[in-house]
Amino acid sequence: MSLQDAISKLAREAVAKFVEPGQVVGLGSGSTAAVIVREMASLTFKDSLLCIPTSLQIKAEAEKSGLRFGDEGKIPDIDVVFDGADQIDSDYYMIKGGGGALLREKILITSAKAVVIGADSTKFVKSFSRCVPVEVHPLARVSVARKLASMGGKPALRTLDKGYPFITENGNVILDTTFASIPDVRVMEVELKCIAGVMEVGLFTRRADVIYKAKTDGTFETIKPSGT
Predict the structure, then answer these.
(1) What is the CATH T-level fold of the domain 132-202, as seen in this structure?
(2) CA–CA separation, 135 vs 13, rounded Å?
(3) Partners of 136 in beta bridges
(4) What is the average pLDDT across 124-147?
(5) Which whole-number Å values give the CA distances from 174 to 13, 48, 99, in the listed order?
(6) Residue spans in the chain of domains classed CATH 3.30.70.260
């Protein structure tokens, strides 16, 4: 038994419990979301579903699985969104955006009727300890970096292996910003979003309706955060 076994099991349960015929389903990005997409491929009613992907990576996976896509006009009608997380703190807030799809993920998660998150046990922390992705319009790259520094952050432009800037599917850059601490995640999310040129921030304060915690022994835990 392994962590991958746990992810496969939670994907089966998540799809069985939350996906019904005729739904609009939001698809997050990353490896866990990809497993859920492959699980959806086995549904007898998959042709009745309309999927809204957050990235080209997950769209390609959904295409291989024979899933149908809805247009952006369907976003307000999303019944459930499946996604992963880079970190989940003790209040069940999340850091997302390690794959660069934070803007579309935030749109789907804030719009969906239900949010289901799958993450392995290493992603759960008492308080955030990794950098916060900040998606920025290229014109504002320098000014936003200075503002982040004035707020106590240490921003670093995300780059590819050969040193080229990472460009999101929205045509923006990402400043991965390290903070010594984030005393109030909700306040920080708002403050970062208010900086001119910031398109989105990887702090997610809408708590999921259900979080599946995958463990290395092949099992998973189901968590229902309070306040959802």
Answers:
(1) Alpha-Beta Plaits (3.30.70)
(2) 33
(3) 173, 198
(4) 97
(5) 34, 36, 10
(6) 132-202
Residues of the chain with CATH 3.40.50.1360: 3-123+205-223
Quick: pLDDT tens for 192-214. Answer: 999 999 999 999 999 999 999 99
Q: pLDDT by residue (tens digit) across 92-127?
A: 999 999 999 999 999 999 999 999 999 999 999 999
For residue 200, indicate whether it is catalytic.
no
User: How crowded is residue 97: how many other Cβ atoms within 10 Å of its Cβ?
Assistant: 28
Asked if residues 132 and 201 have their Cβ atoms less than 8 Å apart, the reply is: yes
The CATH number of 3-123+205-223 is which of 3.30.565.10, 3.40.50.11930, 2.30.30.50, 3.40.50.1360? 3.40.50.1360
Euclidean distance between CA atoms 44 and 155, whole angstroms: 47
pTM of the model: 0.94
Query: What pLDDT shows up at residue 226?
Result: 66
C-beta of residue 126 within 8 angstroms of C-beta of residue 132: no
Half-sphere exposure of residue 109, counting CA atoms within 13 Å on the CB side? 31
User: Which one of 105, 135, 189, 200 is the catalytic residue?
Assistant: 105
Q: Give me the pLDDT at residue 121, please.
A: 95
